[in-house]
Amino acid sequence: MIHTYQEAVDWIHSRLKFGIKPGLERMAWMLEQLDHPQRRIKCVHIAGTNGKGSTVTYMRSILQKAAYKVGTFTSPYIESFNERISINGEPIADAELVQLVNAVKPVVEKLEETDLGAATEFEIITVMAFYYFGFQNICDIVLLETGLGGRYDSTNVIYPVLSIITTIGHDHMHILGETLAEIAEEKAGIIKSGVPVVTGVLQQEAAEVIHAVAKEKRAKVYQIGRDFSIQHLYSGAKGEALSFGCPFHTLEEAFISMKGTHQVHNAALALMGMYYLKTYQSFLIEEQHIRDGLREAFWLGRFEQLSSSPAIIIDGAHNPEGVESLVQTMQAHYGDKRITVLFSALGDKKIDEMVEKLEEIADRIIFTSFAFARAVSPQLLAAHCRIREKEVYEDWQYALDTTMRGLNENDVFLITGSLYFISAVRKYLKQTKSK
Fold first, then answer.
1. What are the strands of the beta sheet with 249-256, ordered from one edge?
2. How many domains does the chain have?
3. Are residues 322 and 342 in the same domain?
4. Helices (H), 169-252
5. Band of pLDDT at residue 434, cut at 50, 70 and 90
6. Which of 56-60, 102-106, 326-330, 370-374 has the lowest mean pLDDT?
């Protein structure tokens, strides 16, 4: 029996030792023991290399404006572990997390006695989310984000009303495949028979895979640039202006506060999803709900500005495609400024490509590390860098404090890389500011 919040989190994290084990057999077994909570959930299932969290955020914000109760399951977290299971943007309470752990722990322990073996951390968190949304706190709709891939992801036991595949890029290639087509095939594994899929995938070889899987499953495809369109009108100091069109509606000159052309792309996917729910699932969503929801949507750690003078920005760009989007956003909004970058990353990423892209905007790059098993040493990161102004610090807090003391009000300080790193930095900066 778990009694405290810390005991609950420690028990969940203790499952990290079992690593990543693709496959749905353990999930199916545990959910059967719990009376199939996932069958009681109306959900939208979202996969993709980048953009999942932002797409979820836009959809949640719009649905909340329309007075719906919206559950979300996302990863990883930025401020608190509880964020991963939220309702209307509010993480579940500590007491609820303890209740969930006590509900699933006996089943997890019973599973270990079978030939299926031990459940992983992500499998347990996913089961907890299904149990919570299925039995403890029923929502009008749940926005469910995959953890890794799609086909064998722990979330892929759900039968949604709509699937969304945001983008395809080079990430987790040691698990998902070396080519875009192979990665797309894994992501397309979330497509279910007769369930429509919205996709923002732009590369032809990846899009062809998605269309082929959808055809086999008799699932209608809504493809960006073909079945719906987005126009980026302009970038402003407070965000981006856009217009959107699809078979169901046209939206002229709406505004998002999350910066970057990639956020315009993510907003397009959310809008297509919203208009599908409105048209075919009888959701009562008005145009003002959509405009207000888009404008007020905010996602922690995604081009988040923590200070304006000097500008301090954190962004969890953790793969080459993410860094490329970040670079474009920095060029659009801070192209005339001197930019200092603080960077740390995990070893399973294409670090050389990420550093090369950051060099396009950085006047100075500082490499560091943090307490995480897969974090790369700053020396190895710096070995990929060709610009003159580069520095190496083992202690990221020292690097952060030292750099901030040397900034002037016109400088821009960009902190980026692993989302786990961003989470630690954000927490530290918030604590420092509050003292």
1. 229-236, 239-246, 249-256
2. 2
3. yes
4. 173-176, 180-187, 204-216
5. low
6. 370-374
